[in-house]
Amino acid sequence: MVILSAVAYLPLLSQFGFAKWTVLFMSPFAFQESRIALYALWFTAGVFIGAPGLSTGLISRSGTLAKNWKGWIVVCATAYAALSILPKVLLHHGVPLTPTNAVKAVLWVFSCVASCFAFLAAFRGLELQPSRIMDSLSRSAYVMYLVHYVFITWAQKSLMPLPVHAGVKAAIVCASTVALSWLTAQVLIRIPGVKAIV
């Protein structure tokens, strides 16, 4: 997935850059042009990973991924720390912007893949007690995945001009996206035709 993600992402990144967005129809339906192939890749990967079901394949509770969830959390944290720190260190030591951005792009791919697998590993490896909230989240997960992009983009855009620390903004965006996606999913899965699909 690191190689496939790099092939899907890096050529478009070199063409469009880190921050070029395109509005689809109207705001907040926007996407980063450099990530469009990456979105398609991970959506396809999700279909293949989930096709055998939760009890078998990569995401089974008895599989290697779930058994090594703690290691994946360490890999995820390490990759994110490298992404956050190394480009700044390079710039501080006088490395030109172009090679620094190349290192940042490669580290971003590693961090993205590590995060995806770490979350999969943790959610499959942790033994959680059954609860109504977690059962509802589980039932709503696919619909939440389909609709979350609108809420996360809207929340990020709304908070961008506010003079608030990035960590606070991230927490607000995360909480509001989960809440609004979950609420939307609760409405949609009560529609008979939608419920049959998801």
* β-sheet strand percentage: under 5%
Total helical elements:
8
The sequence of SSEs as H and E is: HEEHHHHHHH
Sheet with the most strands: spatial strand order: 1-2
- The first-to-last residue Cα distance is 26 Å
How helix-rich are the residues, as a percent range? Answer: over 70%
- CA gyration radius, whole angstroms: 19 Å
Largest sheet: 2 strands, antiparallel
Write the layout of secondary structure elements.
Blueprint: H1 2-16, E1 21-23, E2 30-32, H2 36-50, H3 64-67, H4 69-92, H5 97-125, H6 132-159, H7 166-188, H8 192-197
Antiparallel strand pairs: 1-2
Helix pairs in contact: 1-2, 1-5, 4-5, 6-7
Explain what the structure shows:
By secondary structure, the protein is mainly alpha-helical. Strands 1-2 form a two-stranded antiparallel ribbon. The protein folds into 2 domains: 1-127, no CATH class; 129-198, no CATH class. The mean pLDDT is 88. Helix 1 packs antiparallel against helix 2 (36-50), helix 4 (69-92) runs antiparallel to helix 5 (97-125) and helix 6 packs across helix 7 (166-188). 15% of the residues are buried. It is built from 8 helices and 2 strands, in the order H-E-E-H-H-H-H-H-H-H. The protein has helices spanning 2-16, 36-50, 64-67, 69-92, 97-125, 132-159, 166-188, 192-197, and strands spanning 21-23, 30-32.
